[in-house]
Amino acid sequence: MFDPVIAPSGTLLGLLQRGRGDGTLHALTAPRAEALAALNHCVLRDPRHDWQVENRSLYYARLYLDLNGELDAVEAHLFAAEDVLDTEESRTGLALAVLGHLASYGRRDALELLRRYAAHGSNWAWALDELALRDDDAGLRALAAPVLARFTTDAEGEAELAAAVRDAFEPRPWRLWAEDPRPSVATRVRAAQEAGCFDRWQRQMRPTGPRPGWSVRAVFEWAQQGMERGAALHVPAARCLAAVAGPEDRPEILQAARTGIDGARCTALRYLAGSDDPGALDLIEAAVADGTTAVVEAAVDAFERMRGVAAVDRARGWAQRPDVLGAAAGRMLACRGGARDRDLVLAALREAVRGEGPDAATLWTLVDGAGRLGIACAAPVLRHVYRETASSHLRGRAARALAATDPSFATGFAVECLWDCEETTREIAARHAETGDTRVVERLRRLAADPAEEDEVQTAVRSRFGPDATLG
Question: Do 92 and 126 contact (CB within 8 A), yes or no?
């Protein structure tokens, strides 16, 4: 899946793509046709950079309800010829998840679309998972024949069916079909269930990787073999070293960390950092200076995972370095530094935004650190990240940091956060939004009554309705 093109944050489309609360608020005041066009654009062209992590489906489903939006565009997208040519889950997953939420809210047209797509669409397994949570037994039983017809009755087809049953996210349909009164259905599904269980058992009986009694050298060789075939194994290899290495092996491990081939060097650095070895920090610095890209990345990651006082002290000296180690030092101080490190963390935050923009991966840690350390001067940068990032998770972290650093948060961003696409962000808003705004009171009551809302959000809402609450 290609990276989506995100519209400017000041436009309706840009707000909806980001999943911001202001997107919903603007859509509800915009011309309905314009709002629905922007909404359909988002649902049919998934705007998430990480579609497996970021939430949008409930956010878009709620907006369809508020706009009383038709599903013609979603139907055309699901059943287009492209569905046969592009079978990646990312093409249709968001639309199917939105339909699932709409079905939960009682939209019969959404339920019927899911049923049709489960019977005929390429991404049928996703649709079936959505239906498993929302459809009745009769609706699911009606899908048994078209779903099973996707699998031939030869050995290859039965193996594919067994894999589908084994990997199903929601097992309810398969359990229903295993008890189906039609022998042609129940027999196949039961056989597939048994084959899937046997396959899992066989996998457990054929473990790969290190065995008890391996030497340090054998662990290094295993890590290098993984690297040569494109699999980074230095993390599990370092755990193996912790099990097999003794004090007498330290010279060999130190030598590997200095001059070993990439697999061994990455493993040794990870192991030494994890055990807070007194030589680890110097070896990490040397690896960043002369190592390959893989070694540099492993060294930086190993450094950031260190917990000792020595690592934090070294981070204070490295924080102003203009390289990856300096950036890592800033992140370490954000996680484990104290009040004396506020200026260094603030400088790292500003530099990251200035140099890499509001979607830089390093900002996740730095934003958290600004909130943890209560850096009030960071509020303008945090507000910029909040507005501009395309990542709804990073925006949520910025909201949490603003709640700790920005006195205007409760009457500003916290209000729109009540409509945000991420439940953790809505939870923050439910705890902080100033109830002098009538929209806040109305929204809190709606969230409290919405069965689709997450428990954590509703708990936060109920805390505002307690005996000392000031809701109007």
Answer: yes
- The whole-angstrom separation of Cα 235 and Cα 241 is 10
| Residue found under tokens 């287009």 | 80
pTM of the model: 0.89
Question: Are the beta carbons of 24 and 63 closer than 8 angstroms?
Answer: yes
As a whole number of angstroms, the distance between CA 46 and CA 148 comes to 29
Helix (H, G, I), strand (E, B) or coil at 410: helix
Of 266, 207, 259, give the one whose Cα is nearest residue 241.
266
Neighbours of 313 (CB within 10 A): 11
Distance between CA 348 and CA 337 in Å, rounded? 13
Cβ burial, residue 65 (10 Å; 0-12/13-18/19+): middle
Secondary structure element (H or E) that encloses residue 221, with its range: helix 216-228
Percent composition of the chain: helix, strand, coil (DSSP 3-state, to 5): 70, 0, 30
DSSP designation for 8: P
Instruction: Classify burial at 52, counting beta carbons within 10 Å of its beta carbon; exposed 0-12, middle 13-18, buried 19 or more.
Output: exposed
Q: What is the pLDDT of residues 184-209, one digit of tens each?
A: 899 999 998 888 554 554 454 455 55
pLDDT band at 2 (very low <50, low <70, confident <90, very high): low
81: amino acid identity, one letter: A
- Give the integer Cα–Cα distance in Å for 77 and 431: 39
Q: How far apart are CA 74 and CA 76, in angstroms?
A: 5
CA distance 218 to 116: 54
Q: Mutual orientation of helices 57-67 and 21-29 as an angle, nearest 10°?
A: 20
Percent of the chain with pLDDT over 70: 94
The mean pLDDT of 368-372, rounded to a whole number, is 97
How far is CA 134 from each of CA 112, 114, 131, rounded to the nearest angstrom? 12, 10, 5
Q: Could you give the CA distance from residue 189 to residue 133 in angstroms, rounded to a whole number?
A: 20
pLDDT confidence bin for 183, thresholds 50/70/90: confident
Q: Report the amino acid identity of residue 398.
A: A
168 SS3 class: coil
